[in-house]
Amino acid sequence: MSEARSFTFICETPGLRLDRFLAARLTDYSRTVLRTFIEDGKVLVDGRAQKPNFKLKSGEKIEASFSLNSWPSINAEDWILHEDRDIIVINKPTGIIMHPLNNSWLNNPETVLSEKEPSIAGIFYHLRPQIAKKKVSRLGIVHRLDRQTSGVLLLAKNEDAEKNLRRQFKEHLLQKTYLAITRGNPRQKRLRVTAPIGHAGMSRNFVATPFGKPAETGFKILKSAPDAALIEARPLTGRTHQIRAHLAFAGYPVAGDFLFDKGSESPAPPRLMLHAFEIALSHPRARKKVSFRAPIPDDFKDFWKLCLKKKDKSS
Prior knowledge:
single chain; alpha+beta; Structural Genomics Hypothetical 15.5 Kd Protein In mrcA-pckA Intergenic Region, Chain A; Pseudouridine synthase; nine-stranded mixed β-sheet; four-stranded antiparallel β-sheet
Protein backbone atom coordinates (compact mmCIF):
# COMPACT_ATOMS: atom_id res chain seq x y z
CA MET A 1 0.00 0.00 0.00
CA SER A 2 3.04 2.25 0.07
CA GLU A 3 3.96 4.53 -2.80
CA ALA A 4 7.72 5.09 -2.91
CA ARG A 5 8.97 8.48 -4.07
CA SER A 6 12.46 9.89 -4.49
CA PHE A 7 13.54 13.47 -5.18
CA THR A 8 16.90 15.15 -5.69
CA PHE A 9 17.55 18.92 -5.53
CA ILE A 10 20.57 21.21 -5.55
CA CYS A 11 20.48 24.25 -3.31
CA GLU A 12 21.03 27.43 -5.28
CA THR A 13 19.96 29.92 -2.61
CA PRO A 14 21.98 29.61 0.59
CA GLY A 15 20.55 30.31 4.04
CA LEU A 16 17.16 28.62 3.59
CA ARG A 17 15.91 26.21 6.24
CA LEU A 18 15.76 22.62 5.03
CA ASP A 19 12.03 22.20 5.78
CA ARG A 20 11.15 25.46 4.01
CA PHE A 21 13.31 24.53 1.04
CA LEU A 22 11.45 21.25 0.62
CA ALA A 23 8.02 22.80 1.26
CA ALA A 24 8.58 25.20 -1.66
CA ARG A 25 9.33 22.28 -3.99
CA LEU A 26 7.17 19.44 -2.68
CA THR A 27 3.88 21.29 -2.59
CA ASP A 28 1.83 18.09 -2.32
CA TYR A 29 3.00 17.80 1.29
CA SER A 30 2.53 20.10 4.25
CA ARG A 31 5.52 21.30 6.26
CA THR A 32 4.29 19.12 9.11
CA VAL A 33 4.65 15.99 6.99
CA LEU A 34 8.00 17.09 5.58
CA ARG A 35 9.34 17.80 9.07
CA THR A 36 8.38 14.24 10.02
CA PHE A 37 10.28 12.85 7.03
CA ILE A 38 13.33 14.96 7.87
CA GLU A 39 13.30 13.95 11.54
CA ASP A 40 12.98 10.28 10.51
CA GLY A 41 16.15 10.55 8.44
CA LYS A 42 14.41 10.21 5.08
CA VAL A 43 15.95 13.46 3.80
CA LEU A 44 19.73 13.74 3.40
CA VAL A 45 21.91 16.77 2.77
CA ASP A 46 25.13 15.74 1.05
CA GLY A 47 24.50 12.24 2.36
CA ARG A 48 23.84 13.21 5.98
CA ALA A 49 20.63 13.51 7.98
CA GLN A 50 19.94 17.00 9.31
CA LYS A 51 17.33 18.75 11.43
CA PRO A 52 14.37 20.60 9.86
CA ASN A 53 15.90 24.00 10.75
CA PHE A 54 19.26 23.18 9.15
CA LYS A 55 20.49 26.14 7.06
CA LEU A 56 21.42 25.07 3.56
CA LYS A 57 24.53 26.15 1.71
CA SER A 58 24.86 26.81 -2.01
CA GLY A 59 25.58 23.67 -4.01
CA GLU A 60 24.48 21.19 -1.37
CA LYS A 61 22.64 18.12 -2.64
CA ILE A 62 19.28 17.33 -1.02
CA GLU A 63 17.96 13.79 -1.45
CA ALA A 64 14.50 12.83 -0.24
CA SER A 65 13.31 9.24 -0.36
CA PHE A 66 10.14 8.12 1.36
CA SER A 67 6.81 6.39 1.00
CA LEU A 68 3.41 7.85 1.65
CA ASN A 69 3.26 5.29 4.43
CA SER A 70 5.18 2.28 5.63
CA TRP A 71 2.19 0.06 6.25
CA PRO A 72 1.95 -3.53 5.08
CA SER A 73 -0.32 -4.17 2.12
CA ILE A 74 -3.94 -3.75 3.22
CA ASN A 75 -6.69 -4.63 0.79
CA ALA A 76 -9.32 -2.38 2.36
CA GLU A 77 -11.55 -2.67 -0.69
CA ASP A 78 -12.56 -6.02 0.80
CA TRP A 79 -13.90 -4.23 3.88
CA ILE A 80 -16.52 -2.26 1.92
CA LEU A 81 -20.06 -3.45 2.53
CA HIS A 82 -21.77 -0.67 0.56
CA GLU A 83 -20.71 2.43 -1.33
CA ASP A 84 -22.58 5.11 -3.24
CA ARG A 85 -21.84 8.74 -4.06
CA ASP A 86 -22.55 9.86 -0.49
CA ILE A 87 -21.44 7.17 1.95
CA ILE A 88 -19.09 4.24 2.42
CA VAL A 89 -20.07 1.47 4.82
CA ILE A 90 -17.23 -0.78 5.89
CA ASN A 91 -16.68 -3.82 8.06
CA LYS A 92 -13.86 -2.56 10.28
CA PRO A 93 -11.44 -5.28 11.37
CA THR A 94 -10.29 -5.49 14.96
CA GLY A 95 -6.92 -3.92 15.77
CA ILE A 96 -7.25 -0.85 13.53
CA ILE A 97 -7.37 2.60 15.12
CA MET A 98 -9.71 5.24 13.74
CA HIS A 99 -7.17 8.03 13.27
CA PRO A 100 -3.75 9.18 14.54
CA LEU A 101 -3.59 9.82 18.26
CA ASN A 102 -2.25 13.35 17.77
CA ASN A 103 -4.49 16.11 16.43
CA SER A 104 -2.23 17.44 13.67
CA TRP A 105 -4.21 15.46 11.06
CA LEU A 106 -7.27 17.65 11.71
CA ASN A 107 -5.47 20.70 10.28
CA ASN A 108 -3.21 18.80 7.90
CA PRO A 109 -5.12 15.68 6.79
CA GLU A 110 -2.24 14.41 4.67
CA THR A 111 -0.26 13.68 7.85
CA VAL A 112 -2.32 10.50 8.21
CA LEU A 113 -0.19 9.08 5.39
CA SER A 114 3.08 9.57 7.27
CA GLU A 115 1.99 7.65 10.37
CA LYS A 116 3.78 4.39 11.06
CA GLU A 117 0.56 2.73 12.21
CA PRO A 118 -2.34 2.32 9.78
CA SER A 119 -5.63 3.97 10.66
CA ILE A 120 -9.08 4.15 9.09
CA ALA A 121 -8.41 7.82 8.30
CA GLY A 122 -5.12 7.03 6.55
CA ILE A 123 -6.32 3.94 4.72
CA PHE A 124 -9.32 5.72 3.22
CA TYR A 125 -7.37 8.92 2.52
CA HIS A 126 -5.23 6.69 0.33
CA LEU A 127 -8.13 4.61 -1.03
CA ARG A 128 -10.59 7.46 -1.68
CA PRO A 129 -8.51 10.66 -2.09
CA GLN A 130 -11.56 12.52 -3.40
CA ILE A 131 -12.88 12.72 0.18
CA ALA A 132 -9.84 14.76 1.19
CA LYS A 133 -9.98 16.83 -2.00
CA LYS A 134 -13.56 17.81 -1.16
CA LYS A 135 -12.30 18.91 2.27
CA VAL A 136 -14.83 16.78 4.12
CA SER A 137 -14.49 17.33 7.87
CA ARG A 138 -12.40 14.69 9.67
CA LEU A 139 -11.91 12.89 6.35
CA GLY A 140 -15.51 11.68 6.48
CA ILE A 141 -15.30 10.00 9.88
CA VAL A 142 -18.66 10.66 11.55
CA HIS A 143 -18.42 8.15 14.41
CA ARG A 144 -15.88 5.78 15.84
CA LEU A 145 -15.22 2.26 17.04
CA ASP A 146 -12.55 1.29 19.54
CA ARG A 147 -9.35 -0.22 18.19
CA GLN A 148 -10.35 -3.72 19.33
CA THR A 149 -14.01 -3.43 18.30
CA SER A 150 -14.91 -4.86 14.90
CA GLY A 151 -17.90 -4.17 12.74
CA VAL A 152 -20.00 -1.77 10.73
CA LEU A 153 -18.68 1.77 10.30
CA LEU A 154 -19.98 4.76 8.31
CA LEU A 155 -17.87 7.24 6.33
CA ALA A 156 -19.20 10.33 4.56
CA LYS A 157 -17.93 11.09 1.06
CA ASN A 158 -19.03 14.72 0.79
CA GLU A 159 -19.84 17.68 3.01
CA ASP A 160 -23.64 17.39 2.76
CA ALA A 161 -23.59 13.72 3.74
CA GLU A 162 -21.18 14.45 6.59
CA LYS A 163 -23.43 17.15 8.04
CA ASN A 164 -26.54 15.01 7.64
CA LEU A 165 -25.00 11.99 9.36
CA ARG A 166 -23.62 14.09 12.20
CA ARG A 167 -27.08 15.51 12.78
CA GLN A 168 -28.56 12.01 12.87
CA PHE A 169 -25.97 10.94 15.43
CA LYS A 170 -26.51 14.06 17.52
CA GLU A 171 -30.28 13.65 17.54
CA HIS A 172 -30.07 9.88 18.14
CA LEU A 173 -31.89 9.13 14.89
CA LEU A 174 -29.61 6.22 13.99
CA GLN A 175 -29.95 2.82 15.59
CA LYS A 176 -26.81 0.84 16.32
CA THR A 177 -26.81 -2.81 17.36
CA TYR A 178 -23.77 -4.52 18.87
CA LEU A 179 -23.02 -8.09 19.84
CA ALA A 180 -20.97 -8.78 22.97
CA ILE A 181 -19.78 -11.87 24.77
CA THR A 182 -19.75 -11.18 28.49
CA ARG A 183 -18.29 -12.72 31.60
CA GLY A 184 -21.16 -14.00 33.70
CA ASN A 185 -24.69 -14.88 32.71
CA PRO A 186 -27.54 -12.48 33.51
CA ARG A 187 -30.70 -14.18 34.75
CA GLN A 188 -32.93 -11.60 33.10
CA LYS A 189 -33.58 -11.87 29.37
CA ARG A 190 -33.51 -8.09 29.03
CA LEU A 191 -31.62 -5.36 30.86
CA ARG A 192 -31.75 -1.60 30.63
CA VAL A 193 -28.86 0.24 32.21
CA THR A 194 -29.15 3.95 32.95
CA ALA A 195 -25.95 5.30 34.45
CA PRO A 196 -23.86 8.42 33.70
CA ILE A 197 -20.51 7.81 31.99
CA GLY A 198 -17.39 9.90 32.36
CA HIS A 199 -13.91 10.03 33.85
CA ALA A 200 -13.45 8.85 37.43
CA GLY A 201 -10.98 11.07 39.28
CA MET A 202 -7.76 11.63 37.35
CA SER A 203 -8.22 8.52 35.20
CA ARG A 204 -8.63 8.95 31.45
CA ASN A 205 -10.78 5.83 31.25
CA PHE A 206 -14.54 6.14 30.79
CA VAL A 207 -16.59 4.42 33.47
CA ALA A 208 -20.04 4.61 35.05
CA THR A 209 -19.79 7.50 37.50
CA PRO A 210 -22.26 9.95 39.09
CA PHE A 211 -20.13 12.75 37.68
CA GLY A 212 -20.50 11.65 34.06
CA LYS A 213 -22.93 12.46 31.28
CA PRO A 214 -26.35 10.74 31.08
CA ALA A 215 -26.23 7.43 29.25
CA GLU A 216 -28.66 4.58 28.60
CA THR A 217 -28.27 1.18 26.94
CA GLY A 218 -30.71 -1.65 26.28
CA PHE A 219 -29.47 -5.24 26.41
CA LYS A 220 -31.04 -8.50 25.27
CA ILE A 221 -29.57 -11.90 26.21
CA LEU A 222 -29.51 -14.02 23.04
CA LYS A 223 -27.76 -17.17 24.27
CA SER A 224 -26.27 -18.38 27.54
CA ALA A 225 -23.36 -20.50 28.75
CA PRO A 226 -22.51 -21.27 32.40
CA ASP A 227 -19.98 -18.45 32.69
CA ALA A 228 -20.74 -16.31 29.64
CA ALA A 229 -23.55 -14.81 27.61
CA LEU A 230 -24.05 -13.64 24.04
CA ILE A 231 -25.74 -10.27 24.35
CA GLU A 232 -27.30 -7.81 21.93
CA ALA A 233 -26.67 -4.19 22.94
CA ARG A 234 -28.44 -1.08 21.67
CA PRO A 235 -27.02 2.21 22.95
CA LEU A 236 -29.73 4.86 23.28
CA THR A 237 -27.10 7.55 23.83
CA GLY A 238 -23.66 7.87 22.29
CA ARG A 239 -21.07 8.05 25.07
CA THR A 240 -17.50 6.86 24.70
CA HIS A 241 -17.10 3.20 25.81
CA GLN A 242 -20.79 3.18 26.74
CA ILE A 243 -21.51 -0.51 26.18
CA ARG A 244 -18.33 -1.61 27.93
CA ALA A 245 -18.93 0.67 30.92
CA HIS A 246 -22.60 -0.24 31.28
CA LEU A 247 -22.03 -4.00 31.09
CA ALA A 248 -19.26 -3.70 33.68
CA PHE A 249 -21.57 -1.58 35.86
CA ALA A 250 -24.23 -4.33 35.61
CA GLY A 251 -21.66 -6.92 36.69
CA TYR A 252 -21.11 -8.58 33.30
CA PRO A 253 -17.98 -7.09 31.68
CA VAL A 254 -17.21 -7.73 28.03
CA ALA A 255 -14.75 -10.62 27.74
CA GLY A 256 -11.30 -9.35 26.86
CA ASP A 257 -11.90 -5.83 28.14
CA PHE A 258 -8.54 -4.75 29.53
CA LEU A 259 -10.22 -2.25 31.82
CA PHE A 260 -13.08 -4.26 33.30
CA ASP A 261 -12.43 -7.97 32.63
CA LYS A 262 -9.96 -8.52 35.45
CA GLY A 263 -10.69 -12.17 36.16
CA SER A 264 -8.63 -15.18 35.12
CA GLU A 265 -11.59 -17.17 33.82
CA SER A 266 -11.10 -19.45 30.86
CA PRO A 267 -11.36 -19.53 27.97
CA ALA A 268 -9.09 -16.57 27.27
CA PRO A 269 -10.50 -14.26 24.56
CA PRO A 270 -8.23 -13.22 21.68
CA ARG A 271 -9.40 -9.60 21.98
CA LEU A 272 -12.32 -7.46 23.14
CA MET A 273 -15.42 -9.50 22.34
CA LEU A 274 -17.47 -6.61 20.98
CA HIS A 275 -18.77 -6.38 17.42
CA ALA A 276 -20.79 -3.57 15.80
CA PHE A 277 -23.32 -5.78 14.04
CA GLU A 278 -25.84 -3.42 12.42
CA ILE A 279 -26.58 0.24 11.81
CA ALA A 280 -29.89 1.67 10.60
CA LEU A 281 -30.23 5.25 9.37
CA SER A 282 -31.94 7.58 6.95
CA HIS A 283 -29.85 7.77 3.79
CA PRO A 284 -28.52 11.36 3.56
CA ARG A 285 -29.61 11.81 -0.05
CA ALA A 286 -32.50 9.38 -0.65
CA ARG A 287 -34.02 10.08 2.79
CA LYS A 288 -35.05 6.42 2.93
CA LYS A 289 -34.34 4.15 5.86
CA VAL A 290 -31.45 1.81 5.13
CA SER A 291 -29.60 -0.68 7.29
CA PHE A 292 -26.27 -2.44 6.98
CA ARG A 293 -24.86 -5.47 8.76
CA ALA A 294 -21.27 -6.55 9.27
CA PRO A 295 -20.71 -10.33 9.26
CA ILE A 296 -19.66 -11.75 12.60
CA PRO A 297 -15.89 -12.36 12.50
CA ASP A 298 -14.40 -15.80 12.93
CA ASP A 299 -12.53 -14.99 16.15
CA PHE A 300 -15.82 -13.90 17.75
CA LYS A 301 -17.64 -17.08 16.67
CA ASP A 302 -14.72 -19.29 17.68
CA PHE A 303 -14.58 -17.80 21.17
CA TRP A 304 -18.31 -18.34 21.66
CA LYS A 305 -17.87 -21.98 20.64
CA LEU A 306 -15.25 -22.33 23.38
CA CYS A 307 -17.70 -20.87 25.88
CA LEU A 308 -20.30 -23.45 24.80
CA LYS A 309 -17.78 -26.29 25.06
CA LYS A 310 -17.28 -25.34 28.67
CA LYS A 311 -21.04 -25.80 29.05
CA ASP A 312 -20.81 -29.29 27.60
CA LYS A 313 -18.03 -30.25 30.02
CA SER A 314 -19.98 -29.00 33.02
CA SER A 315 -23.14 -30.93 32.13
